[in-house]
Design brief:
The chain is of the alpha+beta class. It has one domain: Nuclear Transport Factor 2, Chain: A (Roll). 29% of the residues lie in helices and 43% in strands. The chain is built from three helices and seven strands. Strands 1, 2, 3, 4, 5, 6 and 7 form a seven-stranded mixed β-sheet that branches. The radius of gyration is 17 Å and the shape is globular.
Length: 159
């Protein structure tokens, strides 16, 4: 019985750590903390991010630089990630979570009463994390958008 409880406790700790890593990534986006060193704390050196438009970025430097450029057009964002569904096999974890993200265009003065000031999207985040040096890091993440609403007048294609 003790071995089962220890295994369950270890799995719960891993799932909690994995959830924290994902939350750190989305918090960095919302706080516009797109420093490559910061991204390296939760991304592997060869992490691959696939944007909803299908473009892929590799590594903390490229990913953080692209996010910094892309998120400059927003006055603010909020990413709401549901409790992730995590499956762990050894030092690899597969994750699925729902995501709703609100993006306020620059100049909107955070006024969500005018539909021209924002867009919102809902999607499914799929991620793979690996345990490296005792810490979980994102090695792959993609977001498949399921629905969108609001204004897309300021949308520009970015890497």
């Amino acid at each position: 019985m003790d071995q089962i409880n220890q295994a369950q406790i270890a799995e719960l700790i891993d799932k909690s750590d994995i959830t924290s890593v994902l939350n750190s990534y989305f918090r960095a986006l919302d706080e516009k903390n797109c420093d490559a060193e910061h991204f390296a704390t939760f991304l592997t050196t060869d992490a691959r991010m696939t944007r909803p438009n299908g473009a892929s970025l590799v590594g903390p430097e490229e990913i953080s630089a692209s996010h910094r450029q892309s998120f400059a057009r927003f006055e603010g964002t909020q990413h709401f990630l549901t409790t992730p569904d995590v499956s762990i096999e050894g030092d690899t974890a597969a994750v699925r979570a729902n995501l709703i993200a609100m993006h306020m265009w620059q100049g909107s003065h955070t006024n969500a009463n005018d539909i021209e000031n924002f867009f919102v999207a809902g999607g499914v985040v799929s991620a793979r994390l690996i345990r490296t040096d005792g810490h979980w890091k994102i090695s792959q993440l993609s977001n498949a958008v399921v629905w969108r609403g609001g204004s897309f007048k300021n949308v520009m294609q970015t890497k």
